[in-house]
Amino acid sequence: MMVPAVLKGASQNELATMIDLRKCIGCESCVYACQESNQSKYPQPQKPFPKMYPEKVKVSDWSDKRDVTERLTPYNWLYIQRAQVEHNGEMTEVSIPRRCMHCQNPPCAHLCPFGAAHKENNGITTIDPELCFGGAKCSAVCPWNIPQRQTGVGPYLSVAPALAGNGVMYKCDRCFDKISEGRMPACIEACPVGAQTIGPRDEIVARAKKMADEENLYLYGLDENGGTNTIYVSAVPFDKLNQAIEKGPGKPHLAKTEDTMARTDVLAGALLTAPFAGAVASVTGFYRQIKKYFGEKK
Amino acid sequence: MKKTTSIYPELPQWYRYAFIITTAMLLFSGLGQMPLYKRYFIADVPGFSWTGDYFFLNHLHYFSAALMAFLIPVGFFKNYFRSYIENNESRPAAYAFIIMFAAFFAADIAKIIAAGYGAGYPREMIFTISLMNILLTFLFVITVPLLWASKKILITVEAKEGNTDSSGKYGAPQ
Questions:
Q1: pLDDT bucket at B120, cuts 50 / 70 / 90
Q2: Each residue's pLDDT tens digit, A49-63
Q3: CA B87/CA B90 separation, integer angstroms
Q4: Which pLDDT does position A10 carry in this prediction?
Q5: Taking the model in full, what pTM does it have?
Q6: Among B25, B39, B79, B101, which would you mutate to test the A interface (most chain A Cβ atoms within 10 Å of its Cβ)?
């Protein structure tokens, strides 16, 4: 399936996906399509792993558990979260495909010390396995703790494996390579019920809002963490879903999320204006000094 | 007229303290951008749990960078440039100091812009800027104490007639 030219990687428009939870039947076609499509990107760790110091540093090894599909792992970038909730007097089972939300202002990309996590023009945030040291900072600052680590792979092995780094972080890259070729991400292509759609963010947001208004639905991802490029649409409120889902490592929540980068943005603004403020303050002071100096000379 | 003076720029006491504290904050929070403090037990030290909070360290880094961005032009214009105009003194250490610090700081700002707001920038560029940032930090850490020590190095400069060393600390007119 081909996508319009506007969806290609070269596009300046941010792409967003809309996941209609009313349609999702939880068949996991998307999960297996993701695994098949991204096989070549999965880690091939070297064993035995180098000893790491101090000893409290834990090995994260999923290489023998590649078939795990009930949570996010370095070998499973998309999984189906399930919730049984009562809504409007009826028990409903909701299946929720979970993966990276591709935030508009991603803290993982902002705070990665080496720029390994990076947001592209088209709104996709990817992690470069050739630059990532596996410090897991991206996972710690992600409101949903999405990136997952695999030890024994990546550039840390050739620097100081005992003292710094611990592998590479992995997460959904929204099949950026397929998109750059004008193709659909594997999960969208494989969905038998068309639960997921992709398009320019403004169009997707407009469509999601219209659906929510007309059909009394709930949205998640629109404002979370300052805005994401994954919008969930549900007939059940998300706070109910959040209470019903299993949460924990590799199993993200569905709670309301503040903009984690808001304060940083304010401080970045202050940082960019500070040199001018300093220059103005000192030129004013300098002018006074010069005036005083020449006044004394006279 | 010749006089003896330090190659170190004359800076008022408040400026030196502000500079030292801000530099320490920048370096500490900058190192904390790599997940070192959690790994190496610093965050486990009572009273230092904040070193394991990446957002706090990030805010501290930006805040101290903003302070430094204010202090650099103040130091340059108010203390160095004025000293040059008024006393006709040339202080090589001050040039080195300002050029090196400006490079260090430009790399810092470039990193912030490129990593945070540079969607679509080549990843190699961001990595190179990040690396430069780290290397310049180490260079800075090594050079500042040397420059500080250079306070003791005295040079003879041509000064305008009637002018004396304004600090009065490093020698009188000859």
A1: low
A2: 999 999 889 999 999
A3: 9
A4: 37
A5: 0.84
A6: B39
Is A264–B126 a contact, with Cβ atoms under 8 angstroms apart?
Answer: no
Mode of pairing for the β-strands spanning A196-200 and A15-20: antiparallel
Q: Which residues are CB-contacts of B13 (< 8 A; sequence separation ≥ 6)?
A: none
Do A85 and A236 form a contact (C-beta atoms < 8 A)?
Answer: yes
Answer yes or no: are the C-beta atoms of A19 and A194 closer than 8 Å: no
Contact A84, A101 (CB under 8 A): no
ipTM (interface predicted TM): 0.88
Task: Write the pLDDT tens digit of every residue in B9-29.
Answer: 566 778 778 888 988 898 899
Angstrom distance (rounded) from CA A94 to CA A235: 10
Of all residues in chain A, the one with the smallest CA distance to B54 is A141
Question: Which are the contacts of A233, defined by CB distance < 8 A and separation ≥ 6?
Answer: A18, A19, A20, A21, A22, A208, A211, A212, A217, A218, A219
Nearest to A137 among B35, B74, B114 (CB): B35
Dump pLDDT digits (tens) for A6-39: 343 334 579 999 999 999 999 999 999 999 999 9
Token pair 């370095």: residue: A74
Determine the Cα angle at B161 with ends B9 and B152, to 5°.
30
With beta carbons less than 8 A apart as the criterion, state whether B71 and B18 touch.
Answer: yes
pLDDT at A283: 75
CB A139 within 8 A of CB A145: yes
DSSP letters spanning chain B: -EEEEESSPP--HHHHHHHHHHHHHHHHHHHTTSTHHHHTTGGGSTT-GGGG-HHHHHHHHHHHHHHHHHHHHIIIIIIIIHHHHHH----HHHHHHHHHHHHHHHHHHHHHHHHHH-TTS-HHHHHHHHHHHHHHHHHHHHHHHHHHHGGG-EEEEE--TT---SSSSS--B-
- Nearest Cα residue in chain A from B121: A120
The distance of B4 to chain A (nearest Cα, Å) reads: 22
What CA–CA distance (Å, rounded) separates B111 from A7?
A: 28
Cα A124 to Cα A118, A195, B79, B119, B120, distances in angstroms: 8, 20, 47, 9, 10
Which residue out of A114, A131, A132, A290 would a mutagenesis test of the B interface target, given it has the greatest number of B Cβ atoms within 10 Å?
A: A114
Q: How far does CA A191 lie from the centroid of its chain?
A: 21
Alpha-carbon A71 to chain mean position = 16
Whether the bond between B9 and the residue before it is cis, its omega within 30 degrees of 0, is no
